[in-house]
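Fold these two proteins, one after the other.
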Amino acid sequence: MPIVGFNFDKIHIEKKKPISKDIKIKNNMVIKEINKIKVGFTKTQEEVLKFDFKYTSKYEPSIAEIIIEGNVLYIGDEKEKAKILSEWKKSKKTPVKATTHVVNTILIKCGVKALSLSQDLNLPPHIRLPIITPKVNKKDYIG
């Protein structure tokens, strides 16, 4: 697996006003920066790509917000890392095929953390969770 590290750098959650009836929740994730750094996993230093990210969940209209910032360390092969870094420096975009695993890791880890944080402040979940509903018997239906 090319992901060798995941770190939270900043976690901010704020409830600005009480929950209203018509809430819209907007989730977003952006890669802020990609740098090549050296890390020591063994006695030798290994070059990895460090993806800095920002994940947000905004409860509109101005009810609450969750902001999570951090980084992911990626250890793919040298050609792949060079391609990712080159594309980033040129256009501030990343090759989709090469970075899908990085983005999915960010979405999963931040989604779970944001869900936990939203429960702490009694906010509704920022993602749709599975629910069950009782089955309505058609002969009992009067509407």
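Now the second one:
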Amino acid sequence: METWEAGAPGVLRLPSGRLVRGRGLRRPPPPGPSPAFGVYLLGKPPPQVPWPALWLRWPDFWLPSDSGAARAAFTEALDRAGTGRVELACAGGRGRTGTALACLAVLDGIPPLDAVAYVREHYDRHAVETPWQRRYVARGGWRPPRG
């Protein structure tokens, strides 16, 4: 299993022990291995990368344009994080990235109302920048239906 090193820059440990990396694309990638999979949270297509990746259309300071695509991206990222290095990134690495990491935390067992605080404590204290991003995590309309 080739995952991130705990404690490496931008790496968040989820409750299950899975490690995911968040980062801002405006800065160079941290030193170390490349991701095995990436989810890029941008209003326009991301730059090409040499690993499998998804683009989730997500304008800066807002919410994903498609809840179904967000659900699929978050679910795939969480699944792949069990066995590989998964990266989630937006331009700055805080708002959209923090929101997506909080959604992963909810899928991994953190109560929705606690997920933003979890990400702020373990990833970046400024993560999840807007009130509507906080509500998006808490309300969970992006989560898979129960059944």
